[in-house]
Amino acid sequence: MTFSINTNAGALVALQNLADTQMSLQSTQNIISTGKKVNTAQDNAAAWSIANTMTSKVSAYDAVKDSLNRATSTVDVAMSGGQQVADLLTQLKAQALAGSDSSLSATSLSSINQNFKALLTQLSDVVNNASFNGVNMINSGGTTIYALASDTGTKITVAAQSLALGGANVTIAAAASFATAAAASAYVATLTTDITNVNTALSALGTGANALAGQLKFVSSLQNSLNTGISNLVDADMAAESAQLQALQTKQQLGIQALSIANQSTSALLSLFR
């Protein structure tokens, strides 16, 4: 064994090991404080890049879900209004059928006609007020909606279904009225056709609502899968990191002690000259 006062090899080795331990300890503490084993590209370039790409997709799907939710709410309001229209048409048909009785007095017929006109006004009000966020799918010239379906910009289309009086589906005019049993009878066939048309329109809206609901469920599931994948790539195993932290702290204490012993070894040289 060679003793030198110029170089303390043992102290240098102990110092290097202590520095390495300190770097590992700092890395482990950073992982524990963030909960992630990959915080920057320096930690793991491939995992960091993939995680960042997937995180961007997750954020994009938030916008898709917002779009689908808005569209769903709009269609729900339209369907609610359409159902009310169907109910009012049924009542209108009942009034027209009642008015077609030729044995009615003029007073009774007039009363039925007033109820008939009041139902028409109510139907018009329902159609005009079936809006969500300013979008009405069932009024005259109703708005077709286009909801985002993916992060690439593809869309789901739900066509407007006009249920306005005097339109393609509800053909009876807003000013419809009858003064005779024969005139009332003529509206029965018209209203029967209108009820069928409205049911068909509601079926179309229902199909659109199902498409939106299905896509929303898929996007939510996909987003959950992406988040799980990101977690698998970058999240730390906290139990393992906790155990690693304790091991490194112990190693650090031993390294300090080893460095102290190595530094004391030079004092042994002095005893050779006593």
Describe the structure.
There is one protein chain. The protein is mainly alpha-helical and 274 residues long. The protein has 2 domains: 9-35 and 237-271; 59-233, f41 fragment of flagellin, N-terminal domain (Up-down Bundle). Helix content is 70%, strand content 4%. The protein contains 6 helices and 4 strands. The chain has helices at residues 9-34, 45-99, 106-129, 181-234, 238-264, 267-271; strands spanning 131-132, 135-136, 145-148, 155-158. The strands form 2 sheets. The chain has a two-stranded antiparallel ribbon with strand order 1-2. It has a two-stranded antiparallel ribbon with strand order 3-4. A hairpin with a 2-residue loop joins strand 1 (131-132) and strand 2 (135-136). Helix 1 runs antiparallel to helix 5 and helix 2 packs antiparallel against helix 3. The longest helix is centred in the first third of the chain and has 55 residues, at 45-99. The chain is rod-shaped, with a radius of gyration of 39 Å. 28% of the residues are buried.
> What's the number of helices?
6
Largest beta-sheet characterization: 2 strands, antiparallel
Enumerate the strands of the largest sheet in spatial order, edge to edge or round the barrel. Answer: 1-2
Strand content: under 5%
Which regions contain 5 or more consecutive residues with pLDDT less than 50? Answer: none
Rg on CA atoms, Å: 39 Å
The 3D shape can be described as rod-shaped
